[in-house]
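Hi D.,

Good news: the full-assembly prediction came through. Inputs first.
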Amino acid sequence: MNTRQLFLSHVGQTSAAPLCLNIVKAEGSKMWDADGKEFIDLIGGISVCNIGHRHPKVVEAIKKQADEYLHIMVYGEFVENPQVQYAKALTDHLPSTLNAVFYTASGAEATEGAMKLAKRYTGRTQIISFKDSYHGSTQGALSIMGSEYWQQAFRPLLPDVMQLRYNNFDDLKNITERTACVFAETIQAEAGVVAPANGWLAALRQRCSDMGSLLVLDEIQCGFGRNGSLWAFEQFGVVPDILLLGKALGGGMPLGAFVADKRIMDSFTSNPVLGHINTFGGHPVSCAAGLAAFHVLLQEGIIASVKTKEKLFRSLLNHSAIRNISSHGLMMAVEFDSFETNKKVIDALIEEGVFSDWFLFAAHALRIVPPLNISEDDITLACSKVIDVLNRLEV
Ligand code: PLP
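Then the structure:
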């Protein structure tokens, strides 16, 4: 059996038709398959590789940490330098009330931890989220996912959850003194890049404060410069009580986190002690990689270039088949008339050496979330291939 057949036989699958690209090398905004074919990567592991694949400083940090120690003890017991240094760097770049980092091994676990923290801190049970939101695939996170299609086969899920309409001001009145917390993506990603309407996040913040409910902003996909500022919430004048991080947090290594005020975070330390625990959260190699990536992101002027690159993409993606482009920084949804059209475009682009996919709740939209340091030449080349493909397919 070749590697592809072994993959299909022995690796758990998530769909009946996996892409099966056999990538053997990735660097910057490029990937190469086993036949030496080159791809421009327009999604960077879905918003993971914000500073590109295998940035030399990240690789160096991983090697250095591997020479010192790998796993030594479950999260939270030993003083592990990479965890401490990264927590310090992150909180130095966050508002003062977001000063304590709880590390997890994934984004979904950050969601789970934040749900538990909010329940424990407020003594309340109700959790509110928004339609078309995605916070992960584990049972708790699935319970607050904004899509019945993905939830129905797995019921019963968590009780006492409620979904409101994102960007609907009236719905906010459903947040009450029963509500432990409200989860929102600062920019909804899987909905097809939906930004908060003018004043809506501020109204949400205010309602949560009035009701004593914690506001949890999920920046797992939209954080780390993706939208043109280090954190997306900075652009809307709000500060969450809990911030969820993941994806780019680990610089290409698995890492998640939820960040809160120490006063809130300490609820996990008693009654019961060990309120949330894990083995691999804040793995030293992931933290070393993440810290190196964070420094690169801050020091190489990458975030400052995001809006210019967004404009470049938008100016080059002009075609009658494109119904709309919804974008916020380098998080873009290029909308076609249907999923069928989008799928044809995606497949043809893969043939042409451009890699992208679609959004969970907006299957008609092509996802563009490339490394933030993608070159203008690669943007121009990728866009010209999109236009060529649209002309050739006559969609
Ligand atoms: N929240 C958002 C906004 C996400 O996009 C994702 C992953 O796509 C998650 C949470 C879950 O993260 P993970 O896949 O690491 O569990």
